[in-house]
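Duplicate of #3305? Posting structure anyway:
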């Protein structure tokens, strides 16, 4: 005799298989959602950390910019002070120069033959007025001061004879051009 099983066992397996598949799908979906939530929480935490770092960095930058501004101001003040000190140093170096130059010029005057009566100085020139024993003494004095280190050139402006205390003397005016840097 032939036995026929009328119970649908395939359907029962299909239902069980379908239930297993639904549980696996739901579990996989739930695991995917949990992973998404974890990734979102991690990126949110990282974004918060980065925002706090950015805030602290901005505050540090502001503090450093204030210090740099102060530093630039100090550098300007130092540069101004160095400039002032350089000017003071130059003035101090050149303070005694005119006295030394006039002293050296006075040493160039020959005794008993030439007498200076007036010395005038302008920007780059000097005027010498005086009296000489004769025109030869005046000419010799002119050659002597042409060789003076501070004078570039000497020009005779006037020369004339004058009577002083019953003596005939030669009155002169020289125009001298000073060298640059003196």
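Output from current build:
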């Amino acid at each position: 005799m032939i036995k026929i099983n009328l119970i649908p066992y395939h359907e029962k397996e299909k239902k069980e298989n379908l239930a297993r598949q639904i549980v696996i799908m739901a579990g996989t979906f739930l695991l995917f959602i949990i992973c998404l939530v974890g990734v979102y929480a991690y990126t949110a935490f990282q974004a918060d950390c980065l925002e706090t770092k950015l805030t602290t960095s901005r505050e540090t930058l502001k503090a450093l910019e204030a210090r740099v501004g102060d530093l630039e101001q100090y550098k300007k003040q130092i540069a101004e002070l160095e400039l002032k000190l350089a000017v003071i140093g130059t003035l101090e170096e050149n303070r005694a120069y005119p006295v030394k130059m006039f002293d050296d010029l006075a040493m160039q005057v020959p005794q008993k033959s030439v007498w200076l009566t007036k010395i005038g100085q302008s920007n780059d020139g000097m005027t010498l007025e005086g009296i000489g024993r004769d025109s030869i003494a005046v000419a010799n004095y002119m050659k002597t001061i042409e060789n003076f280190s501070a004078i570039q050139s000497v020009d005779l402006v006037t020369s004339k004879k004058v009577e002083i205390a019953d003596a005939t003397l030669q009155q002169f005016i020289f125009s001298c051009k000073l060298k640059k840097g003196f």
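Confirmed duplicate; merging threads. The chain is about 60% helix and 25% strand. The chain has a mean pLDDT of 86.
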